Amino acid sequence: MSSAARQTIRTVIVDDEPLAREGIRQLLEPETQFTVIAECVDGDDAIDTIVREHPDVVFLDVQMPQRDGFDVLAALSEQPLPLVVFVTAYDEYAVKAFETHALDYLVKPVNRDRFRHTIERVRQRLTEQDLGAATSRLLRLLEEHPSRLEGRTGAAPLRRLPIKTGDRIYFVNVDDIDWIEAADYYASLHTKKQTHLIRMSLNALEEQLDPDEFLRIHRSTIIRISRIAELRRHFRGDYTVILDDGTRLKLSRSYRRKALDILGQIEPPSD
User: Fold this and answer.
1) Mean pLDDT, to the nearest integer, of 210-232?
2) Among residues 58, 140, 18, 227, which one has the least CA distance to residue 217?
């Protein structure tokens, strides 16, 4: 879910000065997407609130009694942190603030135009986080259950395969695949132009491919039947399958009878 689709951006204001909290709240009033869920008067209160409420963004004062803003972040180092915007009357903490990966640093009194710029940065970062999380979920789903991409119920053959490269997903049409080769925990999909790696076992692929189009000829090889140009028998009855592009692949004994039956061949007498 992108930040544009969020009903609210849950916001916490932390400052020991009531007027400073009121100032941030007034600046947020035109930003209807932002909802202030809590105001905290010191560092301990801020820590408890952030752990309990899991806000999206915190406007955090630097100088406060007992625990300052940096102490708050240090205490939350083991927790998932919200976006942090430091708000302070002093500019000498800016370098340290950004070393803590703060999103922004505002100096009191906060200029409205400068505040709007910060608000846009918050929206943009939340959008990036949401898209990143959604992409990660999609990648995980496609790795674990590639057939869900097709909305399959188990009856229709798979027509496209998702290929993950880093944070990118692209798709290979099954009709473009000439043959498939096992590669450890992956399978190599060979097309006319290039080879693609998919994190899926050959057994899982075989179950989802159309048996009228693809044939298992070896524990590590599946071929497209229409790409077969020649079936060549060798000494002791071994066979080589030659594809129309000249690729030579071994037909293993354990898959030979089924392959020869499907290809309309007669099994020769055993040697």
Assistant:
1) 90
2) 227
